Amino acid sequence: ISAVKGEYKHFMQKEIYEQPRAITDTIRGRVDFDNMQIVLPELNITAEQIRQLDQIVTVACGTSYYSGLVGKFFIEKLARLRVEVAYGSEYRYSDPILDERTAILAITQSGETVDTLAAIEEAREKHATIWSIVNAIGSQAMRVADGYIAMHAGPEIGVASTKAFVTSIVDQYLLALYLAQARGTLSQDQLRQAIHDVSRLPDLIGRTLEMDAAVQELAQALYQYTDFLYLGRGINYPIALEGALKLKEISYIHAEGYPAGEMKHGPIALIDESMPVLAIALKDDLYEKMISQIEQAQARGGIVIALATQGDSFIAQKADHVLYVPETPYLLSPVVNVVPLQLLAYHIAALRGADVDQPRNLAKSVTVE
Ligand code: G6P
């Protein structure tokens, strides 16, 4: 096994570092650069059939569910199609409203998560179109679907998902553009810009990985705390959820992800000098709001770590620690922002001597209900 891990201490670390290459593989072959079009023949659907759809329901579990929360923004914004995101384990108990004008999008790295498969079954009985985004080729979720999109992340060994998360997000971006082409919701210029943006991701993530030493140093300062709060807004709220999930999965530290605007309705009561608060506060439309939430956390003694846009020196006066990420177009910013949060969870877990690749009580793929 150590040979396979190569220069890395853990598979999770290796898989975090593989993300630029994995995303390159995800995009490869899906863009027809001559015609500036997305091609997804495995989705197995015509433009006419796409135009018949009136909603998409994403079903997934764990990290894949948070990927779906990000993808909802893409499909709604770029293709103007309504998206609902549901937990695989809840969906079939909700008497869901769906019919032949619904496409179910199951996101699952393993393709074998039993709750996600059960949600697919529920949708099949109600005549929805079934799509899956899978990493494991030949898995059940791929076989039972009408069409699929592969993540092309390569084998993911660490129980805590990393490269499958980012590649499944990129897959949903490509899907959103593909749907937009059929629905005519983007101009040729907008489509060209979107393709350009997604093509830059491997480079942006490569640059983000250069902050690893800074994240490790931060982990030194934080690894003995027992409760963390992660705040985000808009498309980065799911990244706050995912950052908190990574930390609890592998370090066994209690961590909560919260939409920053809801902090005043509960979590603020918990904040004191024993609580690190990680705030995703980029230079986007929500920046001013995030700054005011950082001020509130700090006024209560919280240890504020800001995830900020490179060049933002103002925020350094507001936060105790700052992690800088390269400027990225808003819709794709989650893919970059999750990387330092993966690294932070990884280093904190390693410092605590936890079994990073095989955390207690967790399984890579949950095939029981
Ligand atoms: C388990 C894993 C998670 C994963 C989830 C969903 O809980 O530990 O890392 O996100 O299952 O797995 P799937 O294979 O369906 O994406």
Can you describe this structure?
- With 369 residues, the protein is α/β, with parallel strands linked by helices.
- Helix content is 44%, strand content 17%.
- It is built from 15 helices and 12 strands.
- Helix 5 (62-79) packs parallel to helix 9 (163-183).
- It is globular, with a radius of gyration of 20 Å.
- The protein starts with a helix and ends in an 18-residue tail after the last helix.
- The model has no long low-confidence stretch (mean pLDDT 96).
- 6-O-phosphono-alpha-D-glucopyranose is lined by residues 61-64, 108-110, 113, 116, 159-161, 362, 364-366.
- Residues 46-185, 218-359 form the SIS domain.
- Its EC number is 2.6.1.16.
- This is Glutamine--fructose-6-phosphate aminotransferase [isomerizing].
Largest sheet: 5 strands, parallel
Q: List segments where confidence is low: pLDDT < 50 over at least 5 consecutive residues.
A: none
- Cα distance, first to last residue? 30 Å
Tally of DSSP helical segments: 15
Give me a quick take on this structure.
By secondary structure, the chain is α/β, with parallel strands linked by helices. It has 15 helices and twelve strands. This is Glutamine--fructose-6-phosphate aminotransferase [isomerizing].
Explain the layout of strands and helices:
Blueprint: H1 2-5, H2 11-17, H3 19-27, E1 31-32, E2 37-38, H4 47-52, E3 55-60, H5 62-79, E4 82-87, H6 88-91, E5 102-108, H7 114-125, E6 129-134, H8 140-143, E7 147-150, H9 163-183, H10 188-199, H11 201-209, H12 212-222, E8 227-232, H13 237-251, E9 254-259, E10 276-280, H14 287-299, E11 303-309, E12 321-325, H15 333-351
Parallel strand pairs: 3-4, 3-5, 5-6, 6-7, 8-9, 8-10, 10-11, 11-12
Antiparallel strand pairs: 1-2
Residues 61-64, 108-110, 113, 116, 159-161, 362, 364-366 line the site of 6-O-phosphono-alpha-D-glucopyranose.
